[in-house]
Design brief:
four-stranded antiparallel beta sheet; four-stranded mixed beta sheet; alpha+beta; 22% strand; single chain; globular
Length: 240
């Protein structure tokens, strides 16, 4: 169950609130065919597409609402699919999109994520990258989307697990993590399945950190931990 979403186009007034939605690592379900970018010169005052170096452009709130609404089911699908693997999957995610002068998303980052699953995050990034907004006024723009997901009150929550339970694994895989340049200090949310399998996710504030994050999550999700009991456990750890 998605608890809500928030989209902001920098430079605009109030914050639109569409329903949250999803997709997957391999092939995320794409939203409905995106609308064509509108020529900024026909909408924007003072010269339309003219840009000022270092200053972000703006996108109309109505257009942001419309585009995100069209992608709602795709975002939700990303989350729902992974519930079949991680029944306790829950948390908030915030995506930051850089929108180019043609209205297409140049890149998307999971600047904050408490979901704890890299595949769900990757799926949602895939949906976000496929979005097309109207051409921004005044140059490239940024849009931020935050949504919270929860499997519902009938699902037992994961058992909290102390981060120290990962100390031995961190020591064992120190070299592998060190090879992921830029991953040091990364805040990782991790689940441990009843059989000891680990699944994890994390945020990234830049494209460089996104690469380091992918590398580190590839290491962490290969771990096998002592079984936490008969139900799922969850923990948060910081990579050395």
């Amino acid at each position: 169950m998605a608890l809500g979403g928030l989209w902001l186009a920098l430079g605009c007034a109030s914050s639109p609130r569409p329903a949250a939605s999803p997709e997957t690592r391999s092939e995320a379900p794409r939203p409905a065919p995106p609308q064509a970018a509108v020529d900024a010169g026909t909408r924007c005052p003072n010269g339309g597409g003219m840009t000022i170096e270092g200053q972000l452009g703006t996108i109309a709130q109505g257009n942001v609402r419309e585009v995100i609404a069209q992608a709602g089911e795709a975002f939700q699908a990303c989350y729902t699919r992974r519930l079949e693997v991680i029944p306790v999957l829950s948390g908030a995610i915030e995506l930051r999109l850089r929108v180019g002068v043609d209205g297409r998303v140049r890149y998307a980052l999971p600047v904050q994520s408490g979901l704890g699953d890299g595949e769900t995050e990757a799926c949602m990034l895939g949906v976000a990258r496929a979005l097309v907004f109207e051409a921004p006024c005044g140059g490239e723009a940024e849009v931020t989307h935050r949504a919270e997901y929860d499997p519902g009150p009938d699902v037992r929550a994961a058992t909290p697990l102390a981060a120290t339970r990962f100390d031995a694994a961190l020591r064992t895989h120190r070299r592998a993590l060190a090879a992921c340049a830029g991953a040091s200090g990364l805040d990782v949310q991790a689940y441990i399945a009843p059989d000891g399998r680990v699944m994890a996710g994390a945020g990234a504030s830049s494209e460089a950190q996104l690469t380091a994050r992918s590398c580190a999550l590839g290491v962490v999700t290969g771990w096998r931990m002592p079984p936490p009991g008969s139900w799922w456990a969850r923990s948060r750890l910081t990579l050395p």
